[in-house]
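Attaching the record inline, Q. Sequence:
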Amino acid sequence: MPSYSSYRVPQSHYDVVLIGGGIMSATLGTLLHELDPTLKIAIFERLGRFARESSAAWNNAGTGHSAFCELNYTPQGEDGTIDISKAEKIAEQFEISKQFWSFLLSENYIQDPKTFINSCPHMSLVFGKGDSEFLRKRHEKMTESHLFKGMQFTTDHDQLREWIPLIMGHRKDNEHLAATKMDMGTDVNFGTLTRKMGRFLVDDSNVDVFLYHDVKDIDPRDDGKWKIDVKNRMHQKSYEVTADFVFIGAGGYALPLLDSSDIPESEGYGGFPVSGEWLVSYNPELIAQHQTKVYTQATVDAPPMSVPHLDLRIIDGTEALLFGPFAGFSTKFLKEGSYLDLPESINFSNIRSLFGAWWHNLPLTQYLVRQVAMTKDQRMQHLREFVKDAKEEDWELKVAGQRVQIIKKNDEDGGKLEFGTEVVVNNSGTIASLLGASPGASTAAYAMLQVIEKCFPDKVENEWKDKIKEIIPSYGQKLSENPELTEKVRAYTKEKLELNY
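Structure, as predicted:
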């Protein structure tokens, strides 16, 4: 039976090698094993546990991203129209994740859904007449789509005091506020979920899991396979492994590993590392007054991942409030990475992209400098825009995860900073990598299905199709075009995930 033992030696060849022990690799490994249990699969994770980096509970906001509350997913055009196309796509993608998790529960591969997902209303809150009008138009546009059926809108202070009493305390009656609320939002502990999948792979599958094993290099072979150099960090032993297919799901380290593969598709990519911090409160009196997630508009020049929000979090059965994130900067690509990560990632093929992105994002650089220099008292002042009487003794600083935003080659500007999630696949479909951040973990099942479709197209079209539809009942259909299917799928996942909205 596979185990976590650091003494085990990898086989010389695998059908599939997955790099990284986060939610992406755990999801892809589980899907591939379910589609073909005979596949020889190995997972290499450089740390001693699944989900120690971006997937860890406090390293992300825990929002089940459905585009219910994230205003940056619904941009307003110069003509005043609201574009909800991205919001619809993200909502559909999260529904795929919920179906996948429901399947795992149905098969008893994982248990106890409340340990990793809980109902938590999602709200958008804006201040002032201009933003209130934007939110009204956004609500009007979004509720034309059945994906956002049930979204409520109000500017009424009495209603807002009922929804968000903590935020409404000590507010003036003439203050312009507007909010939307979706009761079917969720709070997700992606760390616990990832470790549940990892435990299934270790105990009940033929997948080999190697912790404390660092992949140092990936090179193409003449026969179309991949040579992977792996180092056992516990015993300082190095191994050479070959694989037919490689997936790089190593968070910030995906970029240098993808570059080492020398595939043409990796040329021009660069990375911009962004870290962050939360203000966190465990005060039960405050928590009782805020049982929701509330997102607002990003400040000018702030990256989308720094949209201010005040959230209920449920981690290991304990409730807390989280406010932030406050952006930071480090040259590390992972929290447990090296300060040389950024300089060592610069090469001839991406230096123009990096310089172009820096030159055209000078305000972002200035914003990060200001954020890094902030004291706790200054962070508390930002919190008091939400919670008027917030007391410093009720809140503590907690370091959030490290993200690497994608920089892509751009003919016009040299390089462009991207804030989404992107799957990079080579022409032969033998290597794939996930780059980027938000919405990230929420859309893991959708992203890994993309990898499977691009890298195993013949199998998807033939022997795997029926199984995929069993795992994801809505597979191959657009929920945005099918109200009945949407209602059916949501009823199914609500029951299996024991949600109570």
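The chain is about 30% helix and 25% strand. Residues 85-106 form the longest helix (22 residues).

More tomorrow.
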